[in-house]
Write a structure and sequence with these properties.
136 residues; alpha+beta; Alpha-Beta Plaits; 4 strands; binds cytidine-5'-diphosphate; binds magnesium ion
């Protein structure tokens, strides 16, 4: 049975700054995820704090929100078979040091905070996150 899903991907400031946008997009495309929407934007710290509010009790929350608002990001809607999990597998572990070979974070991540990409972790959160950036 086919299970087409949508998920939200963000290319974070460290990767946009290093001109990795096309390389990362090509990884999605080669792995059967299509890019339905894509826009390069910059968000302010209040918006980043709203986006990451599930992490508000974490010690890294303040730095995380400062970081996501520190420069341009690319937000995308990815679509494909089991897209939420497929994207998470392509991303690799949160800490690039622990990520599998050939994952985006292993290839391009600098550190646990500058780990190049965000991806929704469930279908439910994907819907919320897509709405956050693409509801008009
Ligand atoms: O992004 P992912 O879902 O893999 O990880 P998360 O646990 O949802 O954490 C969100 C983001 O917070 C990570 O991608 C990291 O950028 C950052 N983080 C951090 O800076 N320090 C940590 N110890 C854990 C996460
Ligand atoms: Mg997460």
């Amino acid at each position: 049975m086919s299970n087409i899903e949508r998920t939200l991907s963000i290319i974070k400031p460290d990767a946009v700054e290093r001109n990795l946008v096309e390389k990362i997009k090509n990884i999605f495309l080669k792995n059967n995820l299509s890019i339905k929407e894509s826009k390069k934007i910059r968000i302010n710290k209040d918006e980043a704090s709203e986006f990451y509010k599930v992490h508000q009790s974490k010690p890294f929350y303040n730095e995380l929100c400062s970081y996501l608002s520190s420069g341009p990001i690319v937000v995308m809607i990815l679509e494909g078979e089991n897209a939420v999990l497929a994207n998470r597998k392509l991303m690799g572990s949160t800490n690039p040091k622990d990520a599998d070979e050939n994952t985006i974070r292993k290839l391009y991540g600098i550190s646990i905070d500058k780990n190049s990409v965000h991806g929704s972790d469930s279908v439910e959160n994907a819907k919320k996150e897509i709405d956050f950036f693409f509801k008009n």
